[in-house]
From TrEMBL:
It catalyses: gamma-L-glutamyl-hercynylcysteine S-oxide + H2O = S-(hercyn-2-yl)-L-cysteine S-oxide + L-glutamate. Catalyzes the hydrolysis of the gamma-glutamyl amide bond of hercynyl-gamma-L-glutamyl-L-cysteine sulfoxide to produce hercynylcysteine sulfoxide, a step in the biosynthesis pathway of ergothioneine. InterPro entries: EgtC, EgtC_Actinobacteria, Gamma-glu_amide_hydrolase, GATase_2_dom, Ntn_hydrolases_N. This is Gamma-glutamyl-hercynylcysteine sulfoxide hydrolase. SUPFAM superfamilies: N-terminal nucleophile aminohydrolases (Ntn hydrolases). Keywords: Glutamine amidotransferase, Hydrolase. It is an enzyme of class 3 (hydrolase). The gene is egtC. It comes from the Bacteria. Its EC number is 3.5.1.118.
């Protein structure tokens, strides 16, 4: 199962967030400690970040290779800095495509999105949930994956003006009703706040005085990591955190 994280705080080198911690996302790509399915996350990875002072939106770097197989990433990770990051390593479920565009994060405007989980028979999900997707909506899918479809559903709501938490929660509830076995750990950020859903698998967060990290599993051994309860929505900024049941 995929692993992902989101960070908000003082600008840091991407390496400090993604590769350097003792149980980093990099390590979770080949040795996850709390994964429930699969052994490695070797089907690609992606990093989305907001350059300091940039108001145009996030930049993404995505590959279809394991994160450890990209010889360019370590140098980039030590050079690039950001105070807002969403990163993911991927384990593709059967029936999902394997190209670079299938790697999270997905993007629209300032939004970045990731799924840690899977949805069976996702191709027929819109009809089973009553979601009315037009041909134009479907053509915005970046890849043939459950994550890309969920992102289209979430993005429609964001574009219509729904708050981030409401958009995630509604899509999670509709999907779970139609696919009870679905695992839906969702991450969404606009570079200022993070919204996250836990439904199955694991999700944790850690806040200090000026930063917050939300991750599939803790990236350090610090004891101030808190587990998000199953079937919950987490809304957090650098300075606040709120958890509500789905």
């Amino acid at each position: 199962m995929c692993r992902h994280l989101a960070y908000l705080g003082p600008p840091r080198a991407l390496a400090e967030i993604v590769t350097d911690p003792p149980h980093s996302l990099y390590e979770q790509s080949y040795a996850p400690r709390r994964g429930t399915d699969g052994v490695v996350n070797a089907d690609g990875f992606g990093i989305g970040w907001y350059p300091p002072g940039d108001r145009a939106g996030p930049v993404r770097y995505r590959r279809a290779v394991p994160i450890w197989a990209d010889a360019n990433f370590p140098g980039l990770a030590h050079l690039l800095r950001s105070g807002a990051v969403l990163a993911a390593v991927r384990s593709a479920s059967p029936g999902n495509s394997l190209e670079e565009s299938a790697a999270a994060p997905y993007a629209l405007g300032r939004w970045l999105f990731s799924l840690n989980g899977f949805v069976e028979r996702w191709e027929s999900l819109p009809g089973d949930t009553g979601e009315s997707l037009s041909a134009a909506d479907l053509l915005t899918m970046e890849a043939h994956t459950d994550a890309a479809l969920l992102w289209v559903m979430v993005a429609r709501r964001l574009t219509a003006g729904a708050p981030a938490g409401d958009a995630l929660a509604e899509v999670a509830r509709l999907t779970a009703a139609a696919r009870p076995a679905a695992r839906l750990n969702l991450l969404l950020t606009d570079g200022r706040a993070i919204a996250a859903i836990r439904r199955g698998a694991s999700l944790h967060y850690r806040r200090t005085s000026d930063e917050v990290t939300v991750a599939s599993e803790p990236t350090t051994d610090d004891r101030d990591w808190q587990e998000v309860p199953d079937q919950s929505l987490l809304l957090t900024t650098q300075h606040t955190a709120e958890i509500a049941p789905l």
